[in-house]
Design a protein that fits this description.
Blueprint (H helix, E strand, L loop, with lengths): L5 E5 L4 H12 L3 E6 L3 H13 L3 E6 L5 H12 L6 E4 L14 H28 L3 E6 L3 H4 L5 H21 L4 E8 L5 H6 L2 H7 L8 H11 L11 E4 L5
Parallel strand pairs: 1-2, 1-4, 2-3, 4-5, 5-6, 6-7
Length: 242
């Protein structure tokens, strides 16, 4: 591809983000792998992509800092528009709401929801001028089912559903689709620290965790030309949980 589409994956240094970055690179995108604190992990994802013959680079900024995010994106846009955005970054800081601190509430919402605004808004007009774009947010089954101890996390992720459906209506005439992928229990550092095998068998009809590659496959499709008419949707990847 002479001028590959450029893709930015927030939280690209994690298990799911890394899988998404590798999948989009395999489809010919030039991938920007975002990290905040985990730049070394982002660089490892970049190295794996380059070893497989793809094009990638690492980029670091704090999504909760509007000015820093805009400055980093303006530098990135100097090389051309970013036509694919996957907003995968998110954190959880669990507690029952009755005992939740205000900083736990604010921080979780800040990364997922305010981070969505900070990273998406500066990219929209350059993307629209190309008359082609894909925006996918990674949510969670907690946003559709709810989960004890995750009122903040479920609020942050479900807010992405409404934001994405509304943005899809704003941008569809410009050839831009906006969708959400909502994973269930996915193998990786987060699931391993939270659930044992018995809990997973009780929760998940499929009886197993999903894999990051299974999430990435759906994101990959939504970012393709074939998915042009899929817009404003929330697609679960959860083994039948919801």
């Amino acid at each position: 591809m002479a001028n590959p589409r450029r893709a930015l994956i927030t939280g690209g240094s994690g298990d799911i983000g890394g899988a998404i970055a590798r999948a989009l690179a395999a489809d010919g995108c030039e991938v920007l792998v975002h990290a905040n604190a985990g730049l070394d992990r982002a660089q490892a994802v970049v190295a794996a992509i380059e070893a497989a013959g793809g094009r990638a680079g690492a980029i670091a900024f704090d999504l909760t800092n509007a000015a820093a995010t805009r400055a980093a994106l303006e530098r990135a846009l100097e090389a051309g528009p970013i036509q694919v955005l996957v907003h995968n970054a998110g954190i959880h800081d669990d507690a029952p709401l009755a005992g939740m601190r205000e900083d736990q509430w604010r921080r979780v919402i800040d990364v997922s929801l305010n981070g969505f605004f900070h990273v998406t808004q500066p990219l929209l007009l350059p993307m629209a001028r190309t008359r082609w774009g894909r925006i996918v947010s990674v949510s969670s089954v907690a946003a559709t089912m709810g989960n004890r101890g995750q009122v903040n996390y479920a609020a942050a992720k479900s807010a992405l559903h409404g934001a994405s459906r509304s943005l899809a209506r704003e941008m569809a005439s410009r050839g831009i689709s906006v969708n959400v992928v909502a994973p269930g229990v996915i193998a990786g550092r987060m699931a391993a620290d939270t659930f044992d095998d018995a809990q997973i068998k009780a929760m998940v009809p499929a009886g197993r965790t999903g894999t990051p590659d299974e999430v990435a496959a759906v994101v990959r499709f939504l970012c393709s030309d074939a998915a042009a008419y899929v817009n404003g949707q929330v697609i679960g990847v959860n083994g039948g949980m919801a």
